[in-house]
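Q: What residues go here?
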């Protein structure tokens, strides 16, 4: 059994100490780290609840339940941030990416504890692939929110659309992972290739 709440405490404790020692400007970074890891922790409980409620097998839970729950949970801290603090566009993007990275990091640590770290190549590809997937979903939501929340008539519809896009990409990734075989490694490489292509396009656009 993986006691994920204990893992959360062990990971959050040094971050909390660092947050207390750093200045106010850096504290937002740590707060979104806590938010991302907390969202992952709560997602595990909610995924288990809905999987039991609908008597879903592992495949259905991975491809149908997890993407919806996880993307909604990652969105909630961002909505709170937007509603209370009304940040600038760049800060929204950074908050979304930090939340997504923290979510992925906590998820990877729990996976290692549960499944072991004996197969380096598999763990390496999974760690990078899962991290890149969550970053892409975070970038979709964060970048989109920075745009749609500047336009009152787009806030609700735009947020729902961005959430739907993130869920769809997450579900496709999980579907390929659950299928196994070559498709699994394609899933690990796909987000990395998308991030690389996006970075190259961004660089060429500003030159």
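A:
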């Amino acid at each position: 059994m993986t006691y994920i709440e204990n893992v959360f405490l062990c990971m959050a404790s040094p971050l909390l100490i660092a947050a207390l020692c750093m200045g106010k400007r850096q504290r937002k970074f740590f707060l979104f780290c806590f938010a991302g890891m907390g969202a992952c922790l709560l997602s595990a409980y909610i995924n288990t609840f809905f999987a039991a409620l609908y008597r879903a097998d592992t495949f259905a839970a991975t491809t149908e339940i997890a993407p919806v729950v996880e993307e909604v949970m990652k969105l909630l801290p961002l909505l709170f941030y937007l509603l209370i603090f009304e940040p600038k566009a760049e800060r929204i993007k950074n908050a979304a990416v930090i939340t997504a990275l923290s979510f992925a990091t906590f998820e990877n640590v729990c996976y290692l504890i549960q499944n072991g770290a004996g197969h380096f190549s598999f763990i390496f590809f999974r760690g990078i692939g899962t991290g890149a997937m969550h970053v892409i979903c975070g970038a979709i939501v964060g970048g989109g929110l920075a745009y749609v929340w500047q336009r009152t008539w787009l806030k609700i519809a735009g947020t729902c659309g961005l959430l739907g896009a993130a869920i769809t990409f997450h579900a496709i990734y999980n579907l390929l992972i659950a299928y196994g075989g070559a498709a699994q490694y394609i899933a690990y490489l796909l987000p990395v290739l998308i991030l690389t292509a996006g970075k190259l396009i961004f660089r060429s656009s500003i030159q």
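A: Context that may help when evaluating the design: The helical segments are 4-21, 24-53, 58-85, 89-115, 120-148, 155-179, 182-206. The chain has seven helices and no strands.
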